[in-house]
Amino acid sequence: MGFKCGIVGLPNVGKSTLFNALTQSAAAEAANYPFCTIEPNVGEVGVPDPRLDKLAKIAGSKQIIPTRLTFVDIAGLVRGASKGEGLGNQFLSHIREVDAIAYVLRCFEDDDVTHVEGRIDPAMDAEVVETELMLADLESCEKRITNLEKKARGGDKEAKAQMALLEKALVLLREGKPARFVELSEDEKPGFEMLQLLTAKPVLYVCNVDEDSAQNGNAFSKKVEERAKEEGAGVVIISAKIEAELSSLDADERGAFLEELGLSEAGLDRLIRAGYELLDLVTYFTVGPKEARAWTIKQGTKAPKAAGVIHTDFEKGFIRSETIAYEDYTSLGGEVPCKDAGKMRLEGKEYIVKDGDVLHFRFAN
C-alpha cells in the first residue's frame, strides 16, 4: 500500500533541495533556474516513530523496519500552467498521481536566488499555485458534465451521481475556492475521491525559511500560518539549507549540530510526520525476535484489510488478530507478560485497528 505526498511550488523555492535532504541523495538536481526538475523524482523515506525502537528493545528484535512514505518532487509550476505554460501539462498530470500535496513556499530573502514572480510573498505564491490547480479543475469539471449530460437524461444512475458531485465542486471552484472544501456525506466521499480533482487533495504548507528562522519562523512564515489557520490546514517550518547540511552528517554529528542551532529535532522529521498525518494514516506493529516492523494503514481500517497490507493471503484467509495495545506491551514488558495479565485480545473481522496496536494475525492457508 503506497502513499504519495507531492512536493509542489513555484520554481526556486527550495523543492529539490528539500527532496534531496529528504531522501539523503542527489536524485533531484537542485539548481538556481526554473524547471531543473523535468521529471518527478520519487523517494521513499522512513517515518520516524520512537515507539518502534522501544518495542524492538523489549522483544530483542534483530531488525527494525519503519513504515514508509513516498515523496514526489514535481517540476516547478508557473502562472498559466493550467493553460500549458512552462511545464504545466506534466505538472498537472503528476499532481493527479499523488495522495496529498505539500506546498513549499519561499519564506526567505536572498538576492542570489531569483524569484520567478520578482517578489517574496509566500501567501501570494500559494495563491498562484492553488489558482492554477483550480482553473484546471474547473475546466475538467465542465467538460465532464457536458459528456455526462446525455447519459444522465437517459436514466443512467451513475452518470447522475457523478454530475451531482461535479456540480457541488463547480459551485466552489467558480467562487475561487478549492474542491477540498466541498461538504459531502459519508456516502458521497468514495465517489468524490474517484473524480481525482487536483484541489480536492489535502494540503500541507511547508515554509522554507533562512537558517536563523528555523526555530521560530519569521514574518513571511507568520503570513502562511494565518492562511493555514483560516483553512484548517497544517504548517511545517523548515530550513532546506539546514536540512541539506544535516543529511550529510552521521547520527552523532547531527545531534550536536541540532543542539548548536537550538533545535530539538530535524525539520524533515516533522515534515514526514506531518505528511503522514495529512494522509490520515495510522501505524500498527508486528514484533518478534526476528524483526520489529511498522505498517501503514488508513484511519478506520478493519483487521482483515490491515492484514492484507502484509500479504494478500492474510486478508483472504483472515481468522482473527491477536491484539495488544502499545501501552500494555511496553508497560508490562512484552507479549508473554501481556498474555499472563489478560491484555492480549482476540479480535475478529469487524475490528478497527487502532494506532499503535501490536498485532499477530491468524489466517487459513
Largest sheet: 6 strands, mixed
Approximate shape: flat
Span from first to last CA? 22 Å
Order of helices and strands: EHEHEEHEHHHEHEHHHEEHHEHHEE
Question: Helicity range of the residues?
Answer: 40-55%
Keywords, please?
365 residues, alpha/beta, six-stranded mixed sheet, three-stranded mixed sheet, 12 strands
Summarize the structure.
With 365 residues, this protein is of the alpha/beta class. 41% of the residues lie in helices and 19% in strands. The protein is built from 14 helices and twelve strands.
Structural write-up:
This protein has 365 residues and is of the alpha/beta class. It is built from 14 helices and 12 strands. A 6-stranded mixed β-sheet has the order 2-4-1-5-6-7, sandwiched between helices. Strands 3-9-8 form a 3-stranded mixed β-sheet. Strands 11-10-12 form a 3-stranded antiparallel β-sheet. α7 links the parallel β6 and β7. The longest helix is centred in the middle third of the chain and has 32 residues, at 122-153. The chain is flat. 39% of the residues are buried.
List the helices and strands and how they pair.
Elements: E1 4-8, H1 15-23, E2 41-46, H2 50-59, E3 63-65, E4 68-73, H3 88-96, E5 100-107, H4 122-153, H5 157-174, H6 189-194, E6 203-209, H7 219-231, E7 234-238, H8 240-246, H9 251-261, H10 267-278, E8 281-287, E9 291-298, H11 303-308, H12 312-316, E10 318-324, H13 326-332, H14 335-340, E11 345-347, E12 358-363
Parallel strand pairs: 1-4, 1-5, 3-9, 5-6, 6-7
Antiparallel strand pairs: 2-4, 8-9, 10-11, 10-12
Helix pairs in contact: 1-8, 4-5
